[in-house]
Design brief:
Blueprint: E1 2-11, E2 20-27, E3 30-35, E4 41-46, E5 51-52, E6 56-58, H1 66-69, H2 74-77, E7 81-86, H3 101-112, H4 124-133, E8 139-142, E9 144-145, H5 146-154, H6 163-178, E10 183-187, H7 198-205, E11 214-218, H8 226-240, E12 244-246, H9 259-272, E13 277-279, H10 321-332
Parallel strand pairs: 1-4, 1-5, 6-7, 7-8, 9-10, 10-11, 11-12, 12-13
Antiparallel strand pairs: 1-2, 2-3
Pfam families: Amidohydro_3 (PF07969)
Organism: Melghirimyces thermohalophilus
InterPro entries: Amidohydro_3 (IPR013108), Metal-dep_hydrolase_composite (IPR011059), Metal_Hydrolase (IPR032466), Metallo-dep_Hydrolases_sf (IPR050378)
């Protein structure tokens, strides 16, 4: 006897074939029959013609901290998502070292959310072990986040990494991959990722080749600089010999509408040369990110709190001299304007 039989469903089996009417038989937590199931089950569910499909994979999300506060993941499971990929866009809560701990927290909180408890981990492996202790309802995979690597080794320094610092980041990356991370994510729109040259990233990516790791990227610009930004990450992938995934490909700003087709041509050309390059897109025409991305990257050297103080402020917003200088530069040099 089977444990569960789901009957009369429209089955989409994930192979790419059209759906078909049928049943699903489950025993000991494993699907053992698909089609017309004749065996009886201890439990029977009549799907009444609704879709039965494998769980969906949310390949780009930022639930790294939310999963700890809400391990049941109701909002994902109710959408059919059973696997989440976290650590995207160079943003992740690990590696987390006390020396630059506050820099990392202020860096990721605008996207990952704010926590009012201490983070008890240091390495990516320790973070994943801590997540497992909370028994999340869905499956999780994570990237090693480049922003977290750079902060761990050199804070928010706006300069090229030294050879010693690059080796330090490579060591942390390799530790994360050994602990099960699926690759490296980079967020070139966000400081301190934006301080990094393509050559430095290509050197870091050489670690991925040992572990069949994937390079996933939030490119440097998704508006006026879309095409140069796509070319940059394709160059990094080709130089280091790793597969590339471009996250949320889009052309932001009315003047750039239509450039997505040119970006797709760049991807097609790379694939024609034998390189594994893919992308994903939003299923909607909106997006969100940090307000600090409107500032020139050099403003954020030293960390977000160096520019925007946190805590109570007076009714009149406190504008530090740095922002006054940004405003002056933006007016005198239109190429440096904060708004795209």
């Amino acid at each position: 006897m089977l444990d569960l039989v789901i009957q009369n469903g429209r089955i989409i089996d994930g192979t790419g074939n059209p759906w078909f009417f049928g049943d699903i038989g489950v025993k000991d937590g494993t699907i053992v029959e698909v089609g017309r199931v004749q065996q009886k089950g201890r439990q029977r569910i009549d799907a009444c013609g609704q879709v039965i499909a494998p769980g969906f994979i949310d390949g780009h999300c930022h639930s790294d901290l939310m999963i700890l506060d809400h391990p049941h993941s109701e909002i994902k499971l109710q959408q059919g998502v059973t696997t989440e990929v976290i650590g995207n866009c160079g943003l992740a809560p690990a590696p987390f070292f006390r020396e630059h701990g506050e820099l990392l927290r202020s860096y990721v909180e605008p996207v990952l959310g704010k926590t009012d408890w201490d983070w008890p981990w240091e390495t990516v492996g320790q973070y994943m072990d801590y997540v497992k202790q909370h028994h999340p309802s869905d499956n999780l995979a994570t990237y090693v986040a480049h922003g977290a690597l750079r902060i761990a080794v050199m804070g928010f320094a706006d300069r090229p990494a030294s050879p010693k610092e690059i080796e330090g980041m490579k060591k942390l990356l390799e530790e994360g991959l050994k602990d099960g991370a699926i690759g490296l994510s980079i967020g070139l729109l966000y400081a301190p990722g934006s301080y990094t040259s393509k050559e430095e990233l290509a050197e870091l990516c050489t670690v991925l080749t040992k572990y069949n790791g994937l390079l996933s990227t939030h490119i440097r610009g998704e508006g006026n600089n879309l095409l140069p930004s796509v070319r940059e990450v394709i160059w990094i992938a080709e130089k280091s010999g790793v597969p590339l995934h471009i996250s949320h490909l889009k052309a932001a700003g009315r003047r750039n509408w239509g450039q997505v087709m040119d970006a797709m041509n760049l991807i097609d050309d790379a694939r024609a040369r034998g390189f594994d390059v893919t992308c994903d897109v939003y299923p909607y025409d909106a997006g969100s990110t940090m307000l600090t991305t409107l500032l020139p990257p050099w403003v954020l050297e030293g960390g977000i709190k160096e520019v925007i103080p946190f805590g109570k402020v007076s009714e009149k917003a406190w504008i530090p001299p740095t922002l006054t200088h940004v405003r002056t530069v933006s007016v005198t040099n239109p190429t440096n304007r904060m708004m795209p």
